[in-house]
Amino acid sequence: MSGQRNRLSSMRLLRTLTPDRRRTAYAFGVAILLFAVGAIVRPGFAEWSSIQAVLTVASFVGFVAAGQMFVVLIAGIDLSVPWVLNASAILLVTSSLGQDDRTLWAVMLALGLGLGVGLINGLGIALFSVPAVVMTLGMNGIMEGLTLGLSNGFTCDACSSSAPPAVRGAVVSRLFGIPADLYLWVGIILLVSFVLSFTTFGRRIYAVGNNLRASYLAGINVRATTVILYMLSGMFAAFTGIALVGYGGSPSLGIGDPYLFQSIAAVVIGGVYITGGRGHYLGVAAGSISLAVLISVLQAMNMPEYGRSIVYGVVVLLVLLLYGRERREA
Amino acid sequence: MSGPEAGRGKRRGRWSHFSAQNVPLLLAFLILAGTVIFYVVLFYASLGRFPGNFELTSTTNSALPLVFATVGQTIVFLCRGIDLSVGGMMDISNSLAAVKMQDGGIGNMVGWSAIILLIGAVGGLLNGLLVAVGRLQPIVVTLATLSIYQGIAIKILPQPGGKIPPGYTAFLTNTSYPSALIFVALLILFWLIFRRTSFGVAIYAIGNDEEAARANGVRTTRTRVGAYVLGGVFAAVAGLFLAATTTGGDATAGDSFTLTSIAAAFLGGTTIFGGRGSALGSIAGAFVLSILISVLFFAGIDPLYQSFYQGLFLILAVVIGTLVGRLVGRKR
Predict the structure, then answer these.
(1) Which CATH number fits the domain that encloses residue A268?
(2) CA-based nearest distance B147→chain A, Å
């Protein structure tokens, strides 16, 4: 695609990359471009404090998108994200009651909830061949009903507790002037990238995503892989719920709702094929940053809600047209 | 795919084709019948009489927006697509109607209804072009256009408000007798004809095997764009019915229909893998989801748990559908 006569060395470098890595590079390009646009339309946008704020917003999308990416890599999708996230957030405060000595238990309980929902999703999809859209959509409803019902519409006594100081500290405290939350994200980026690039499990994910039948015949336990990936997705959604409570201090109903479509958008802008088998978390992280920058720029420009919504959609479409097109054979 | 089956020849092929097309549909109607019976029993148990004219009217009226949204979703499903922008298009349609029809003039109502349907077609055209010509994945295209359409709707009607003239409500969703059933009948009639037009056949052909369809002269790009256009029009109609039943406008009232239309289409036996399913099943699925809310109410279930039972019901219905499908040897 790139012009033959192009003598720019950066273009040469791009051409030496594999298509997948090129898409990751594009995703970073988009993030930087949007940052530049932000800095131009809004002086002060490129200041360190503002960049930190944007990256923090991006990290939450990035956490959810990590899980979403895992299932998208095998051509699945997880629509149960919003209420797994919300349930985990509420479970954290209601079980910890804002006390530090109960925090470890509460965090494990919340993460366990995510893993459990993911397990059910995975079993339904892998064993009963329920389409992923239906299984996770249904689970989202189940989690919504359980959360509302068991917390009595979020009016229970324990519901008014706030996040334990330990959880708050793990998200908002600063180390060398940088919010702890960003260290968490860097850790997750390294961990997920390592799993994808350097482990057998990572290779299996790509194998299953590229050709389910061939990977089955090659001896990969496709069902187990599927189940594990949905469990990871549930766990990351639950993790985000905990992080959001730590960030905001207390949960609310509906905090998970924006993260469904944002996580899918981040995954796709990050260069992951929605049909599976291609993409990397580095790109997804860049995609999350792009989305967060876009939202902040639009907010900084004092654009009204309708304008933000429209521009948001248009930018996602433009980015897709730029590098999200399918090959003919795909 | 396995050896022994291949030897049984044509009869087997015909039977598996028949079952692939009709077992899910049959199942959808069985689920509908079951839900209705359950509803009637619970209704009788709690009120000591059978549901009558009023219940039929309100059930039909409240189901209609979902019915139309689901039929649109189904047409898109049939050619291996998905339309997440249904909710956004319903928002536009719903808020535009509430803003523009306020004075209650007949010409105004007819004119704006036509304009709104046209807007639905344009929105669907945009989706279709991006998917078919732009070669983008439907799920992300319609995710982006959902955001765009939601934005436009909020621009049209920033706060819930506006008004739908009583005459309009009386025509689309009359509250005193179940005249709205006529629209269901018209929709069924439309489908029975549409299914047999070359356009309808082409949509099924693309969903079953795009390459084979193209090799047989189906204009795949045009057909796919057409399917999204129809999907957009149906979403706009759904928005009009929503406006008529709620008698007012709300730029976010349609949002929930994106996911419920997908659920209803699946309940009706249509799958996102294309080429399997029918709008008839989808209509049944949409009614099931609507009646289910009344069932839960009469069963004395805390409304807070409503989505729990809906989710559980959706998963169980699809699991049962899959198991039955395996029993009768359906390939997918």
Answers:
(1) 1.10.3470
(2) 5
